[in-house]
Amino acid sequence: MSSRSKSRKRALDALYASEIRNSDATELLQDTAAGVADRQNQAAIFDYAEAIVIGVTRNLAQIDNDLRQISDGWSLERMPNIDRSILRLGAWEILFNEDVPNEVAIAEAVTLASEYSTDDSPKFVNGVLARLAKGTQAL
């Protein structure tokens, strides 16, 4: 597993936990980082995880607005918390991180949905993020 994939998992953990606990995702990530600081390659993993968490939290209003517009018949509030967190992570990479190709952002989000959510979630995540990516290409 690449360090970026590990970073996405760490970021997802923090984003999901912050929503469940109604707490700050950056603080949750930093708490986790402190517990594993002595492990190999953790700095690089947490650096990108932190970029994701900060990016999502700073741009949450726009990300949520864009997701609402393209998620046919599904309000964000109706989505499972984990799916919402995965979509936000993927949307941030598509909308705000030019270093990650849209196809990679979508594939990574689908992988997270496959691992952490329901059987129907990978297809849903793929569809929503593909529509988002398609909309960004028109800009």
Keywords:
single chain; 139 residues; mainly alpha; N-utilizing Substance Protein B Homolog, Chain A; 7 helices; globular
Explain the overall architecture.
The protein has 139 residues and is an all-alpha fold. It has helices spanning 3-21, 25-35, 42-58, 60-70, 81-96, 102-116, 121-137. The mean pLDDT is 90.
Concise overview:
The chain has 139 residues and is mainly alpha-helical.
Q: Write the H/E string, N to C.
A: HHHHHHH
The number of distinct β-strands equals 0
Largest sheet: none
What CATH architecture do you see? Orthogonal Bundle
Low-confidence segments, ≥5 residues, pLDDT <50?
Answer: none
The class by helix and strand makeup works out as mainly alpha
Strand content: under 5%
Shape: globular
In CATH, the topology is named N-utilizing Substance Protein B Homolog, Chain A
Query: What is the CATH class name?
Result: Mainly Alpha
Q: What is the straight-line distance between the termini?
A: 33 Å
Radius of gyration: 14 Å
User: What is the CATH H-level superfamily?
Assistant: NusB-like
Instruction: Give the oligomeric state.
Output: single chain
Percent helix: over 70%
- In round numbers, the mean pLDDT is 90
Please report the number of helical segments: 7
The domain tally reads 1
